[in-house]
Write a structure and sequence with these properties.
heterodimer; A: alpha/beta; five-stranded mixed beta sheet; about 45% helix; elongated; B: mainly alpha; 15 helices; 2 strands; about 0% strand; globular
Chain lengths: ~325, ~325
């Protein structure tokens, strides 16, 4: 008798356990059919990628969802490479990247997803170099940065500081910032083995803030409790501090674009979101977060937008 | 002639018999399922790494020789000789720095956890009053319930600062920091197994020792502990198996720099942390991907072997203790 009660109970348990799964699958199918009929649907837009851009994407999503209550947007980090891989594998709708996609990655997306890829710059960032607040070194040239991060300069006195070992912090190799730094500062040379790779710019800043001999790099929006180094193109040129003026006029040597990547076959809801991001309301968020609005303002933006809408949506 | 009552009883019994055998089958299946899962996981991990043995394109970048033997030609120091730099114009995939990192962290971890764990187990089984033991044992075992990410976070933010101010390390995140955090994580394993081993030592051993005039301390150190030494060994081996696969603590507290050095002052990067950090972005099926899965296979084999040895030693000791 007892055992039959248990059997009944376990069946009940299974029935309950299975029920929600069924419900969500029904939801999903009805959601996608509703989506074709009307713009605002319940299907969330999933965004993944650059850790540099996570705070930006989240603020975009917050503000947009406030203005458009029907839309749900999920934003995740993991690194530009992670986001791009997810876009290739079809597990996200939109990839954020702090570096331009490589030709091979573009081709992979288009063959795997059978749709045209749209590349949309959304903001500008000054790739910043951080040191501890007490560090005597306030300016570094690109060749000096290369020497430090490839392991040729190991002591601060070699670059004009006090006699102490340089403790390097950097990012994982899934990071777009890692690749950007490697390409533009190290000129594609390898990072030294002693670079400690951390998960995310916030972790790098944290480490440098705690380490009097530390140096790190990352997006400018995260900089807090650290000194931003002024960067010189070479030993003889002027030191440029990273800020809005120097980034917009192009004088800061290592500024870069931050990108959205998505497919031309994206849902209306997602396209509306991207349009909003490029609108003045969306661009206003960028400054709040700590990055910079696209240079040239409307010119580049509208040019990018027209090429995007012009690109055919066939495979 | 069957009365309705008898018929009813028969039905019930048949039902009971049926549920009994159905349940037996279900439990047997559940038991086998675990074994099947382990096998499938191993087969999957190994299959994904198979490229380094079969695919010529992959072999150009990743093969056993490159993993374990090859040196960078013009290098002068050990650090430059073996490099893990998979994202590069010329990918360099030496496992040496990662293996060294794994071993360094595990070594410090065991060095920290073994004395503490064994001493705590001795205290708990030989000296502690019964009431204190009732608190101590669950408390140490509760330590196993702390998520490793919490331990890693603690080591990253608090422990690293303490150690650096105390010892003046050049690197905040180093093998000591990671190893001690790891030691906290494996402490419960070592404590529990040693404690069980000590408790399994027959009462007669202690009585005999005390009867010839040994103190309680002498009894514990020179009679009970040696008798339970296989358990201590098993605890070491199982702790090693647990430590070598631990990921989150080392990812957060180890500094993640793939340096081929024996110095415990340097930051380190372990095999497990490398998999966790890099698997997210690799292209499916390329050399880097296969290399990461090969690391997984390697870790699987190491933990499998050490766990098997540990369990065998425990089983043997239990048989022996029961025999006497």
């Amino acid at each position: 008798m007892k055992s039959s009660i248990w059997t009944a109970l376990s069946f009940l348990f299974f029935a309950v356990a299975c029920a929600p799964a069924e419900r969500t699958s029904v939801d999903r199918s009805s959601g996608s059919s509703a989506q074709s009929a009307q713009v605002a649907s319940g299907k969330p837009i999933s965004i993944k990628g650059s850790d540099t851009m996570v705070i930006l994407g989240q603020r975009f999503a917050e503000e947009y969802m406030k203005a458009n209550p029907g839309t749900v947007i999920q934003v995740n980090g993991g690194g530009s490479g992670t986001g791009i891989a997810a876009l290739i594998n079809g597990t996200v709708d939109l990839a954020q990247s702090s570096r331009p996609m490589k030709p091979k990655e573009k081709a992979d997306v288009e063959t795997n997803r059978k749709a045209t890829l749209v590349e949309q710059p959304v903001a500008l960032d000054a790739l910043s170099v951080f040191v501890h607040g007490n560090n005597k070194v306030k300016t570094l040239s690109l060749p000096q940065l290369k020497e430090i991060y490839t392991g040729k300069a190991t002591n601060w006195k070699q670059v004009g500081g006090s006699d102490a070992q340089i403790i390097m912090y950097g990012r994982e190799n899934s990071s777009g910032t890692y690749e950007y730094f490697k390409e533009h500062v190290l000129e594609k040379a390898d990072f030294a083995a002693r670079v400690q790779t951390l998960q995310g710019t916030a972790a790098v800043i944290n480490a440098v803030a705690k380490d009097p001999n530390g140096i790190g790099y990352g997006g400018i929006a995260y900089s807090k409790d650290v000194t931003l180094v002024s960067v010189k193109n070479d030993a003889s040129s002027a030191a440029i501090a990273p800020n809005e003026t120097t980034v917009l006029d192009g004088s800061y040597p290592i500024s870069r674009k931050l990108f959205f990547y998505y497919l031309s076959t994206a849902s209306e809801a997602q396209k509306n979101f991207v349009t909003w991001v490029l609108s003045p309301a969306g661009q206003a968020v960028i400054k709040d977060v700590g990055y910079f609005q696209l240079a040239g303002g409307s010119a580049e933006r509208s040019a990018a937008a027209t090429t995007n809408t012009a690109s055919p949506s066939n495979p | 002639m069957t009365t309705p009552n008898e018929l009813n009883l028969g039905k019930r019994e048949r039902l009971r018999l049926f549920t009994d055998s159905a349940m037996a089958v279900a439990f047997t299946l559940a038991g086998w399922l675990a074994i099947v899962f382990i096998l499938l996981i191993f087969v999957f991990t190994f299959k994904e790494s198979l490229g380094i043995f079969t695919d010529h394109e992959i072999q150009k970048e990743a093969n056993l020789h490159k993993f374990f033997v090859e040196e960078i030609p013009e290098a002068t120091t050990m650090i430059d000789r073996y490099i893990w730099q998979p994202v590069s114009e010329i990918p360099k995939m030496s496992f040496i720095p990662l293996l060294l990192g794994t071993l360094k962290a595990t070594f410090v971890g065991l060095l920290f956890a073994c004395p503490v764990g064994v001493a705590a187990a001795l205290f708990s089984s030989e000296f502690a009053p019964a009431r204190m033991r009732e608190i101590l044992k669950p408390a140490v075992e509760l330590l196993a319930g702390i998520p490793s990410v919490v331990l890693g976070f603690f080591a990253l933010l608090v422990l690293a600062t303490w150690l650096q101010t105390l010892f003046g390390f050049t690197y905040r995140l180093n093998a000591y920091n990671a190893g001690i955090a790891l030691g906290i994580a494996i402490l419960p394993v070592i404590f529990t197994i040693t404690e069980d081993g000590l408790s399994a030592v027959p009462r007669s051993y202690r009585d005999a020792s005390l009867a010839v005039g040994a103190t309680r301390f002498q009894t514990a150190m020179s009679v009970v502990l040696p008798a339970a030494s296989p358990a201590v060994f098993a605890a070491l081996v199982l702790g090693f198996g647990r430590a070598i696969g631990e990921t989150m603590i080392l990812l957060m507290a180890g500094g993640n720099a793939a340096i081929s050095s024996f110095s415990l002052n340097d930051p380190l990067r372990t095999l497990s942390a490398t998999i966790a950090a890099e698997l997210g972005e690799v292209v499916f099926g390329d050399a880097h991907y296969s290399a990461l899965f090969f690391m997984g296979t390697l870790l699987f084999i190491i933990t499998f072997v050490s766990n098997t040895i540990g369990q065998l030693v425990i089983a043997r000791m239990q048989r022996k203790m029961r025999g006497t």
